[in-house]
């Protein structure tokens, strides 16, 4: 069985589900370029908890965790099955790593999970296990979470972190758009790309002090933390491939990252 990559996906606005644009095209291409996974474990920026929680529902519900959007968006469903046995195994791996996880038998899929999964695998026929993010514990913790689950990649499981490479919703009213990009977006995303290409994990984990415009790009860092989950899941020496999906609304960079083993053929 081939070892799967790990992914970091910028999922953007919930409207990406109705207006997939470049993100939809890039994710469809990515799904075609990878071996089909037997299951998916996804850490979304929209499931936050103090300690790691693992979703063990047999049939996770589609959670519409947003307000003020068109009715059509609330009618969408992503009826992928869950994987209770895999969820139990994920919990065991995290426990062995000393991360004190708990199983949540009811958790569904929030929009940070189902929106990109709907674009990757629209048939919704691959079992999905969601995992929570711990915003109070920082990047190193999320990296350790990914490292603990890295062996699953060799068992046909696709590990995904879903967030946003830039995420400052205060800029909704700042007048940015197609003709006027926020000045911090490209310097910040270029820094991330450079450090990932160099394999400089220590500096990346310290991004809030060292990255240009870090506080502006992420007033709170829950949407970047899934990047560290995906990076940890990739293991030492992984190759990072940036997939450019544009900049939405002038301030939401939609970068996607694929992480492969150093000797993997893509």
From TrEMBL:
Molecular function (Gene Ontology), one example: dioxygenase activity
Entry keywords, A to Z: Dioxygenase, Metal-binding, Oxidoreductase, Zinc
Record CDD domains: 45_DOPA_Dioxygenase
Domain Extradiol ring-cleavage dioxygenase class III enzyme subunit B as annotated: residue spans: 27-236
Cofactor(s) required, per the database record: Zn(2+)
Entry-linked Pfam families: LigB
Family matches, as SUPFAM superfamilies: LigB-like (SSF53213)
InterPro entries: Extradiol_dOase_DODA (IPR014436), Xdiol_dOase_suB (IPR004183)
Similarity-based family: Belongs to the DODA-type extradiol aromatic ring-opening dioxygenase family.
PANTHER family membership: 4,5-DOPA DIOXYGENASE EXTRADIOL-LIKE PROTEIN
Protein name as it appears in the record: Dioxygenase
Organism of this sequence: Rhodanobacter geophilus
